[in-house]
Write a structure and sequence with these properties.
The complex is a heterodimer of chains A (about 120) and B (about 110). Chain A is mainly β and about 120 residues long. Chain A is built from no helices and 12 strands. In chain A, strands 2, 5, 6, 10, 11 and 12 form a 6-stranded mixed beta sheet that branches. The termini of chain A are far apart. Chain B is built from no helices and 11 strands. Chain B is globular and about 35 Å long. In chain B, about 0% of the residues lie in helices and about 55% in strands. Classes of the chains: A mainly beta (about 120), B mainly beta (about 110). At the A-B interface, strand 5, strand 6 and strand 11 of A face strand 4, strand 5, strand 9 and strand 10 of B.
């Protein structure tokens, strides 16, 4: 069975601090996909990144960066120089390899509520 | 804007009632997924449709049903509603290939009173 664990339920930091959100996953699949979604107070789920299991290169997008390590089954997310607008709940998710019928279901972690204080 | 449209955004109804949630996928997307987000269960997969056919079921109650129509929009029907059905219901769509991500609508917040 697939499982995603986000051990940090809540994190609170002061603006401009760097913060890392942890994500550990379990799967028996050799091909799988990892995701991060952001859920701001307005409630929608905003896609941030998708990473497949064969690509362990770290990725950076502006102040966001992701560290994927298969050896430790982790896919951590770092926000550099955090801003108040980064306050949201962040979800890590996992899916198996899909097919022509579309991606498989997403298995979500419980989410980490991030609060950035001015 | 993800391109996935869900209506209504908010719904308040009484126990025992039946409601229908509607989802219009992104243009060209063949797959539609329904998820439920509740305080105690978190985000859980309910059901997946591809081009009108049911492809996978998750933790969906028997009181709930869904369908995808020829124009690819989908409806989630919730009946005999209970207080515990209060949740945020998300629809997501994807192109129809396994290597693509799903984009989520803004959700329908259902409150059962």
């Amino acid at each position: 069975a697939q499982k995603v664990t986000q051990a940090q339920t809540e994190i609170s930091v002061v603006e401009k601090e760097d913060v890392t959100l942890d994500c550990v996953y379990e799967t028996r699949d050799t091909t799988y996909y990892l995701f991060w979604y952001k859920q701001p107070p307005s409630g929608e789920l905003v896609f941030l990144i998708r990473r497949n299991s064969f690509d362990e290169q770290n990725e950076i997008s502006g102040r966001y960066s992701w560290n994927f390590q298969k050896s430790t089954s982790s896919f951590n997310f770092t926000i550099t120089a955090s801003q108040v607008v980064d306050s949201a709940v962040y979800f890590c998710a996992l899916s198996g390899a899909g097919g022509i019928q579309g991606a498989q279901k997403l298995v979500f972690g419980q989410g980490t509520r991030l609060t950035i204080n001015p | 804007d993800s391109g996935v449209t869900q209506t209504p955004k908010h719904l308040i109804t009484a126990t025992g009632q039946r409601v229908t949630l509607r989802c219009s996928p992104r243009s060209g997307d063949l797959s539609v997924y329904w998820y439920q987000q509740s305080l105690d269960q978190g985000l859980q997969f309910l059901i997946h449709y591809y081009n009108g056919e049911e492809r996978a079921k998750g933790n969906i109650l028997e009181r709930f049903s869904a369908q995808q129509f020829p124009d690819l929009h989908s409806e989630l029907n919730l009946s005999s509603l209970e207080l515990g059905d209060s949740a945020l219901y998300f629809c997501a769509s994807s192109v129809g290939r396994g290597d693509t991500e799903a984009f989520f609508g803004q959700g329908t917040r259902l409150t059962v009173v």
